[in-house]
Amino acid sequence: MTLAGCGKPAEKVPSPGAEAPQALAPPPESPADLSQAGAVKGRVFYEGPAPAPREIPVKGNPECAVFHPGGNVKSEELLARDGFLKNVFVYVKEGLEHVRFDAPQEPVVIDNKNCVYVPHVSGAQVGQPVELRNSDPTLHNVHSYAENSKNWNLGLPFQGMKQVKKFEAAEVMVTLKCDVHPWMIGYLGVLAHPCFQVTGDGGEFELKNLPPGRYLIEAWHEKLGTESQTVEIGPQETKTIEFRFKA
Length: 247
Prior knowledge:
This protein is mainly β. The chain has 1 helix and 22 strands. It folds into 2 domains: 112 residues, Immunoglobulin-like; 91 residues, Cupredoxins -  blue copper proteins (Immunoglobulin-like, Sandwich). A hairpin with a 7-residue loop joins β16 and β17. The chain is globular, with a radius of gyration of 22 Å. The N and C termini lie far apart (57 Å).
């Protein structure tokens, strides 16, 4: 291991009459202590009649029409069944600012498959590899629209092709688009910690490995906006909460 810059720094001599600085440094980050960690779990409900998925024509795109014999792609922008809401990004918005979690080396995979993004909504940590795949025998590109990280526009012209990117800063949400097929839109939540989950058909989520403390939990949906609530958990405690979005 090579260490650089380990010498003792020179002391700064204050100018005569200079006032001592008033600003306080933010508390340093510390590694996550999970020995007493708890969890927050629950479900996301959709109140009201469940709409039929919006159908988007793929006319003029024969390379995609082969995957969708009816000529339409079913949008995933609002999927509700049996009162539960899918594709909700649930995460810890506040409460982990001074806890450090190392970024996983295992990549998050976003696939261009059957001319849609799979999964439609996903999450990654800052610095975690995001692997962008093309499983289709046609050209796709992945164009990122982020405010806190550098944007990129990656071409994936061949079936089986992959590209890997990383995000430098947290952001909820980063939008991903295919300029070749404009209905292809996906969303990626980027956080400094791993405490997030995307709901499936049953609207369920569980945020694990939370040190005892007070947290602001937010649920994000691309069409219905956000809902949030504050939760306090004790050592090795699991709290159950729910979010409700209205039609």
